[in-house]
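Q: Please design a sequence for this.
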């Protein structure tokens, strides 16, 4: 055994051997000396600035896994003590089933973090930290990032600094394919906080941010979250460079539902297409969306669904029974639209009534209220509400009330 100040550990004779391994738990300070002739393994928190900034210059980053629920349950007989129960909480320390149920419920709120689960003081502190930090980050982050994290989308970036996130609101594990890349997932209680922020944000959007709203809708169409319990499938966005390019890609989608074609700027009627007959229009604001008759004609011609014959618009034979769905993605509960008589300079030869009749025959208009967006499939708001209410009598009033502060 060799004892010395923490900064002098490298002067040990053993540390001078290039065949030795030193396992160190360095203090939280940037200027701590870590290098030595021996091989050094550092067990550190996910703080890149203090511990592993530029680690790839002379080492590599490996991530350890968070404890799992079965592992937390295995710890329970040893770590669940009289210091675990909250003040006023009556828990029988001889009842294994009761203790394990309590552990799982705490894990659902603060994650599988032993110090937060098995200490009543740390449990309350953990709850406060998650809510406080989640509200702060909700202000800092762009909405696109909040959507992806709330759904459970994560980073598996090769950038080691990507793992340097707040462990109070994120669970950090190695990615499934490599311990060298972080897999970062938002805690359920932080999702609970962010959902209110996101829903309010969607409701507050207006026509001044129409292009940004289209970007939001693109994320949702990739399969991030659900609407009123209906989950959209996982898809990939496919950008386009011109109206001609957009039309070609949509025409080529014969039953392939795994890709969303992103329409180019100024493309008629639709902003996204999931199939030849699956159209989406992103409309932000209170005013009802409109479909101009001329734009509809241009779209049918661009997609080779119809042709003009003697001042008539005729569906091609293979599309005579086409059932097209036009989904209006609104940020409110609006369920109306207008089909407008505006033929434009290219389609004045067509009668509006004929075009309108063809639209009504082949197109069904549906609506999605994006302000009712919900998070990832394993998140259950009602369950979080239930758990927080359970602890109401054991937590200080100011703590409990802060959770539900809007």
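A: Design:
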């Amino acid at each position: 055994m060799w004892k010395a100040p923490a900064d002098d550990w490298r002067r040990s004779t053993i540390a001078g051997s290039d065949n030795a391994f030193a396992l160190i738990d360095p203090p939280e300070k940037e200027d701590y000396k870590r290098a030595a002739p021996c091989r050094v393994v550092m067990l550190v928190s996910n703080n890149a600035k203090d511990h592993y900034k530029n680690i790839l210059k002379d080492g590599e980053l490996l991530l350890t896994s968070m404890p799992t629920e079965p592992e937390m349950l295995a710890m329970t007989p040893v770590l669940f003590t009289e210091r675990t129960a909250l003040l006023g909480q009556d828990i029988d320390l001889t009842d294994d089933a009761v203790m394990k149920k309590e552990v799982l419920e705490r894990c659902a709120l603060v994650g599988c973090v032993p110090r937060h689960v098995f200490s009543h003081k740390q449990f309350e502190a953990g709850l406060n930290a998650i809510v406080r930090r989640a509200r702060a980050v909700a202000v800092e982050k762009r909405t696109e990032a909040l959507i992806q994290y709330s759904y459970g989308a994560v980073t598996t970036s090769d950038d080691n600094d990507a793992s340097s996130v707040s462990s109070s609101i994120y669970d950090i594990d190695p990615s499934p394919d490599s311990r060298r890349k972080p897999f970062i997932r938002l805690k359920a209680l932080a999702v609970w906080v962010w959902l209110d922020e996101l829903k309010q944000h969607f409701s507050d959007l207006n026509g001044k941010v129409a292009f940004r709203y289209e970007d939001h809708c693109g994320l949702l169409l990739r399969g991030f979250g659900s609407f009123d319990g209906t989950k959209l499938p996982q898809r990939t966005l496919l950008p386009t460079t011109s109206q001609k390019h957009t039309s070609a890609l949509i025409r080529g989608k014969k039953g392939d539902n795994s890709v969303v074609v992103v329409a180019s700027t100024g493309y008629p009627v639709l902003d996204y297409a999931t199939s030849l007959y699956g159209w989406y229009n992103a409309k932000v604001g209170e005013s009802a969306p409109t479909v101009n008759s001329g734009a509809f004609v241009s779209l049918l011609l661009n997609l080779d669904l119809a042709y003009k014959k003697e001042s008539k618009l005729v569906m091609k034979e293979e599309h005579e029974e086409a059932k097209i769905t036009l989904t209006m993605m609104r940020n409110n509960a609006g369920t109306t639209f207008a089909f407008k008589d505006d033929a434009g300079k290219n389609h004045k030869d067509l009668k509006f009534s004929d075009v309108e009749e063809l639209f009504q025959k082949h197109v069904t208009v549906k609506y999605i209220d994006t302000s009712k967006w919900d998070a990832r499939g394993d998140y259950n708001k009602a369950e979080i509400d239930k758990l927080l209410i359970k602890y109401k009598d054991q937590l200080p009033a100011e703590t409990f009330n802060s959770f539900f502060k809007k």
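Q: Thanks. Anything notable?
A: The two ends are 56 Å apart (CA to CA). The first helix runs from residue 48 to 52.
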